[in-house]
Design goal:
Helix content is about 35%, strand content about 20%. With about 270 residues, the protein is an alpha/beta fold. It has two domains: about 10-190, Rossmann fold; about 200-274, rRNA adenine dimethylase, C-terminal domain (Helicase, Ruva Protein, domain 3). It has a seven-stranded mixed sheet with strand order 4-3-2-5-6-9-7. The longest helix has 13 residues, at about 255-265.
Length: about 270
C-alpha cells in the first residue's frame, strides 16, 4: 500500500506540531542562544528544527522514520549547523555523535508512545542534557512535574535527578493529525547535587514500581505488597524516618522516597527486584 512521506505513521506515534506560536514558546522556554548545541528527538517534518536553527544554534536531530529524512527533512539537512541521525532514540548511544559536547539541551516534541522511555534513556545516560524542554501527553507531563500529595512513579523518579516545571498546555488542533488528548510542555533541569547517584537509577525505579504497586492503599500495605515483605518490616523502616505509614504513597515527597529506598536497599530488599 502506498504511504505518503507527508502523512503520519500511527505505529510511530507521530503527530506533527505545526503551530508557529507554540513552536516559538518552546524555543523561548528552552532559552536557546546561538552558542547552544541542541539535541532534538523526532524532528518530524522539521517545523521545530527550523525555529531552533533561526536562533543560530547547532542542532543534532535523531529521526527514526527514513521516509521523513528523505522527504521533508531533506532540504533543511543542507544547513551546516544541522546534523540528522537516523536511529531510535531509545537505543542510540549519544557518545557516538555528541562526544565533543560537554553541555547541551534537549528540545523535542516526543512521541506519545515512547516519550517517558526516551526521557529515561537520555536523561540518565552517561551524557545527560543540562536542560530539557519537551512536549508529552498532558497526563504524563503533569505526572512528571507533580508535587507531594500527587506524587507518582514518574515524579518521584525524575525529581531525584532533575528540577521539573510545567510550562503550558497544547491543544490538539496544533498538530497534524490531531491527537485525541491534550499535550503539555515541561522542563527538566539537571540538579547540581542529585539525590541519588546515577548508577542506582534502575534499582530506584524498580523500588518505586513496588512502592506504588497499590497506590490507593496505605503506604505500609503498598510497600509490603510490592516488596513482598511483612507489614511490620515496612513500619519499622518508616518509623526510623518518622514517616506515617497510614498515608498513601502519593503523599510522600521525593526526598522521603529516596530515604526509604536507601534503607531498603541497605537491607537487600531492592537488589532482588531486577
Amino acid at each position: 500500500m502506498f504511504h505518503s512521506i507527508n502523512s503520519a505513521k500511527k505505529s510511530l506515534g507521530q503527530h506533527f506540531l505545526h503551530d508557529g506560536k507554540v513552536l516559538s514558546k518552546i524555543v523561548k522556554a528552552a532559552k536557546v542562544t546561538e552558542t547552544d548545541h541542541i539535541l532534538e528527538i523526532g524532528p518530524g517534518k522539521g517545523h521545530l528544527t527550523k525555529k531552533l536553527l533561526l536562533q543560530g544554534c547547532s542542532v543534532t536531530a535523531i529521526e527514526l522514520d527514513h521516509d521523513l529524512i528523505n522527504g521533508p527533512l531533506k532540504d533543511i539537512a543542507l544547513s551546516p549547523k544541522l546534523e540528522i541521525v537516523e536511529g531510535d532514540a531509545r537505543t542510540v548511544d549519544l557518545k557516538n555523535f555528541m562526544a565533543n559536547t560537554t553541555e547541551f539541551k534537549l528540545v523535542a516534541n516526543l512521541p506519545y508512545n515512547a516519550g517517558t522511555h526516551i526521557l529515561r534513556t537520555i536523561l540518565l545516560s552517561d551524557l545527560p542534557p543540562q536542560l530539557s524542554v519537551v512536549m508529552l501527553q498532558k497526563e504524563v507531563a503533569r505526572n512528571i512535574t507533580a508535587s507531594p500529595g500527587k506524587s507518582n512513579i514518574l515524579s518521584s523518579f525524575f525529581q531525584a535527578y532533575y528540577h521539573t516545571d510545567f510550562h503550558f498546555n497544547v491543544q490538539p488542533k496544533s498538530f497534524s493529525p490531531q491527537p485525541k488528548v491534550m499535550s503539555g510542555v515541561i522542563s527538566l533541569e539537571r540538579k547540581k547535587n542529585p539525590l541519588l547517584p546515577k548508577y542506582l537509577h534502575h534499582d530506584y525505579f524498580s523500588f518505586l514500581t513496588c512502592g506504588f504497586a497499590a497506590p490507593r492503599k496505605q503506604l505500609h500495605n503498598s510497600l509490603s505488597q510490592g516488596l513482598k515483605i511483612g507489614v511490620l518490616e515496612v513500619k519499622d523502616v518508616s518509623s526510623q524516618l518518622g514517616l506515617n505509614t497510614e498515608l498513601r504513597p502519593a503523599a510522600l515527597s521525593v526526598e522521603e522516597w529516596v530515604a526509604l529506598f536507601k534503607i531498603f536497599k541497605a537491607r537487600k530488599y531492592v537488589h532482588k527486584l531486577g
